[in-house]
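Appendix B. Extra example for self-study. Work through it before the problem class; the solution is given directly after the inputs so you can check yourself.
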Amino acid sequence: MRRAKTVLGLIFTAIMLFPVYWMINVSFTRDTDMRADPPHLFPLDGTLEGYRAVLDQQLPYLGTSLIVGLGTVALTLALSAPAGFALAKLRPKGGGVLSFVLLIAQMIPGIIMAMGFYAIYLRLGVLNTVGGLILADSTIAVPFGVLIFTAFMSGIPDELIHAAMIDGATTWRTFVSVILPVSRNAIVTVSLFAFLWAWSDFVFATTLDGGGDAQPITLGIYHYIGNNNQQWNAIMATAVIASIPATLLLILAQRYVAAGVTAGAVKD
Amino acid sequence: MAHDVTTGVPASPSAPAGGGAGARAEGTPGRGRRGGHWTAWAFLAPIVIYLLAFYAYPLYRNLDLSLRHYTVRSFVQGDAPFSGFDNYRDVFADPAFGPALLHTLTFTVVSIAFQFAIGLALAVFFAQNFRLSATLRALFLVPWLLPLIVSASTWTWMLNSDSGIVNHALELIHVDPVNWLTSPDWALTSVIIANVWIGIPFNLVVLYSGLQAIPAEVHEAASIDGANGWQRFWRVTFPLLRPVSAITLLLGLVYTLKVFDLIWIMTKGGPADASITFATWSYRFSFGSLLPEFGPGAAVGNLLIVMALFFGLLYIRFQRRQA
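Solution. Structure tokens for the complete assembly:
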């Protein structure tokens, strides 16, 4: 009975992950076999042509995405960790209102933020810049970051803070040397999601960075589909490469991912 | 303590998202640290400035856009004349308004219905803790974690009319091929299918953690009273899961309303507006052609905000009542 359930579970998972398998399969399929009837279910006489195209054409895009992702993580942590600490432990008057505003902020559709950013960036002349994209991408993760840090830091015993204060530490010192080190889990969760969302972002990329030299990988794939929609092995190979961060995340940090999702994590 | 986020959260998925700070503040009073009021706001100053500059201001700009008559020239120079609600009137009168509204609602409601039903069924299935269940459950997260452009382009190729694997599969069971993305009759269905696939993991994980929070004794008591599996689900599990279900559905509503990437990449809202929604329509006005119409684009965007906030506030109200 239990074994039957495992088999059933495997079948469900196989159905669910079929598109992922298909992406990998197509990425190895030769151009001449791309429209074969019936399609080749396994890349038996496959090709690395698609991956060669990625190496030739997509490396700059991947580099940009990496920088944008890391920049977004840094900005998100710098903004949300102190805010989470203040809301969880210092609890000023008006903190509740701020938490409420952050919840609302999280629900505003990205496409509307993008339009506002576009109008502002155009005037300031920062369209098509990496910095501008990092700033815009951080709006996806900052409210989430504050919520996670607030929830986590509320669980840190007050005694820990009192002890540091009695020893003469300032609030800032307490935050840096006592609170941050024990908040490692929250830092990891927020960093992972901030990176992943920035890496995956398409809305801000296409509106704010569609014409520059430094474009992220999401636009790399998008241009690919638009320009040569015959070379599906190259498109799918790029898609496979673009999925690596998500895959690593799931393998290395699965428990953080599940925690992030259940904490009301949200995909834009 | 160090495991607070990872283990504490799944037991009560609603707590952190529901403004946990406010809820917990009552538990441990400030203990005379009120003097540090200014210190606290010093810690909050960066985020407040950030929210004003990068949330409030873009939203204000967007509102301003929707109330003026913009051309490309006046957009750059910023001297567009105020035109009141003209953009909104134009949008309401646009022949695409009806379809866009209908598709937005259909896309949202149908997506959520399937995501929730399938997610719940899988959550109940995985809650039985068989061998490999934890690993397989983790693998189910993959579609949710992939960049949307990856999922969208994969589905685009799978649903290709001539060479897509889906039509080949249909051929095997002697069903005529379907023009998934190129026929006005099927485009909306196609993007809904892809969106359901992406949304199942979120529903599965949240509902699963909701199931874990139901004490095992409840099920044991029901079993002793002679309830079978089916009855136990509908009479015991489902009612106890109602708060978590409501939260999942409302969050799903807010986040499905604003889906843009997927539809834009797969169909661009076409063919002939067959899969246009408010999010894609708004983008098309402002960025989709060589002659941008920022006014109507912003107006449609603001209508979308109103819809999202309606369900968003409903969600927050519900959260608060739970706490």
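Self-check: Chain A has 14 helices and no strands. If your reasoning did not lead you there, revisit section 3.
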